[in-house]
Write a structure and sequence with these properties.
34% strand; elongated; two-stranded antiparallel ribbon; 186 residues
């Protein structure tokens, strides 16, 4: 769904209400194949309001994604519902009207607002860094393969502590540089 600023000027007195379902599956899976495996239809509700040459979009997004587990890459269903607010400006000098923590987008020369693009970008931002399948959440063993394995941070630190000890055959070399500290390997 796209609107030009000229179209939205007629909504100065009363906001344009949004209530639609978007199909963003092809767009998101093509653009972010490593992050998103599938997207169910996206329900979007909210409104667009035009004020003093700027447009405010407030939308609530509700969908279900299939994303790869961050541990084993197995597909995981992930439901998300969130609300976002963005401001679209035709004139870059209007940016002073907004706080630093607000999402403000200066429109290019075509002066169009693409709601599909805004929703898609916000969906990607909502994907957590760590996604685990139900089995992984319940303590399933970490993945392994031929010559490799995934280890927890605690196991890694414990294993490194074992390997940090100096080979007894090399202890005589420490006497060559007595003024150097073991912790400062610069």
């Amino acid at each position: 769904m796209k609107w030009s600023l000229n179209e939205l000027q007629k909504y100065q007195d009363e906001p344009l209400s949004l209530n639609s379902t978007l199909d963003l599956n092809a767009s998101l899976t093509e653009r972010f194949p490593d992050l998103i495996l599938a997207v169910d239809p996206v329900k979007v509700t909210g409104y667009l309001s035009y004020q003093k040459g700027d447009v405010m979009v407030t939308a609530t997004v509700d969908t279900q994604l299939t994303v790869p587990s961050s541990r084993s890459l197995t597909p995981v269903k992930f439901s998300t519902q969130f609300t976002f607010t963005e401001y679209y400006l035709a004139d870059a000098s209007h940016i002073e009207r907004y706080e630093d923590d607000e999402t403000v987008i200066v429109l290019d020369e075509d002066q169009e607002i693409d709601l599909d693009e805004a929703v898609a970008e916000n969906i990607v931002l909502e994907i957590p860094m760590r996604v685990l399948s139900k089995e992984e959440q319940q303590g399933a063993p970490l993945p392994t393969g031929s010559g490799w394995e995934v280890v927890s941070e605690d196991d890694y630190v414990a294993n490194e502590a074992k390997h940090d000890s100096v080979d007894p055959r090399l202890t005589k070399l420490k006497e060559l540089f007595p003024d150097q500290d073991d912790d400062n390997n610069n």
